[in-house]
Structures are given as C-alpha cells and as structure tokens.
Write a sequence for this structure.
C-alpha cells in the first residue's frame, strides 16, 4: 500500500530524483523520461475519459491503472535482482498485452477497413485518443532507447506498442465506428 502523507520532500531540489530501488539519478535520466512520459500519457488519458462513457470509459480506466503498473515497472532497474528483492517489484506481464490485443480485435471487427490514413480528429474523444496514441509512441521510443543501455522489461515495451494501436482503433470506434473518421487526402491543398 502506498502512503503519501507529505507531498514535498525537498530531496529533488538539486535536480535528482529517486528510482524505485532508492538510487538517485538526474531528473533528465532516460529512465525518468520513460516513466515520466507514461505518467504524461496517463494524464492525457484522464482528459480523454471526460468524453467517454460505458464500456469505453471502463476500458480507459483499466488502462490508466495499467499505466501506473508501467511506471512502477520502468522506475525499478536491476531486473536481475528481482528474485532477491524483499518486495518484488511490479512488472508488466504478457497477460496485459494479450488483453489489449483481444480488445483491439473486438473493436476492429466492427470497423470498415481503411483506404487512407486518418487525420487526428472527428469527435472530441477521438481527438484526445489520438493525443494518447502519440504520447504512447513517445513513451515507447524512450523505453526502447533506455533498453539499449539498461535493463527494461520487454513486456513493458510491448505493452506500449500495443497500447498505441489500441488508442488508434478506439479513436475510430469513438468516431461512430469509423463513419466519422477524417481521412487524409494526399496533395489536397496544392
């Protein structure tokens, strides 16, 4: 259980922050950038949820919870020490990726195949989901970059990859199952 009784600690005033294992790193460290971007994504998703209802809102809430799991995973280096840790760190799992894939398949089954790229927009929910999609891609890029030099859970990276796809398909659902998608017209303004 997390207990937050004091919000400011002054420990970061000199430009460092603590990782999940207690190590202090610069606030611009690649690991901090990766989990910070997943937090940014969660905030953007909170705005998107203002326009969602029913099962879509419930799915977005599940994803918000997953994004806290993702941040907990990314903020904890030293995966090799997981088995010896007094409190094993929370790691993303393949089952979370599979759930996204199943949901993508279910949503996509009701959509007409695209014949052009979709411009971000249409309904307010779709527009916000496109923002979430692009922030998820940035979080994925940062996580992949981090994985070049440090241990990163492969399921965390895969989750981000699927999540951006999930947001794309969900944006089409939010656009009246694709009927209100705004399609790119190549060279339309020449």
């Amino acid at each position: 259980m997390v207990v937050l009784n004091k919000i400011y600690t002054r420990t970061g005033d000199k430009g460092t922050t603590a990782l999940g294992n207690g190590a202090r790193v610069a606030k611009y460290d690649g690991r901090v950038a990766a989990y910070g971007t997943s937090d940014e994504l969660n905030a953007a998703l909170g705005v998107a949820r203002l326009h969602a209802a029913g099962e879509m809102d419930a799915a977005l809430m599940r994803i918000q919870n997953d994004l806290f799991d993702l941040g907990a995973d990314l903020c904890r280096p030293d995966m090799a020490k997981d088995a010896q840790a007094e409190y094993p760190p929370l790691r993303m799992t393949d089952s979370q990726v599979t759930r996204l894939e199943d949901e993508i398949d279910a949503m996509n089954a009701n959509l007409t195949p695209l014949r052009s790229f979709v411009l971000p927009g249409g309904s307010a929910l779709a527009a916000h989901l496109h923002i979430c999609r692009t922030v998820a891609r940035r979080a994925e890029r940062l996580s992949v970059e981090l994985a070049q030099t440090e241990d990163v859970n492969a399921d965390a990276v895969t989750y981000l990859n699927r999540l951006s796809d999930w947001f794309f398909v969900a944006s089409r659902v939010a656009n009246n199952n694709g009927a209100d998608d705004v399609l790119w017209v190549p060279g339309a303004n020449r």
About this structure: The chain has one domain: 30-82+89-183. The mean pLDDT is 92. The chain has five helices and four strands. The CA atoms of residues 12 and 167 lie 34 Å apart.
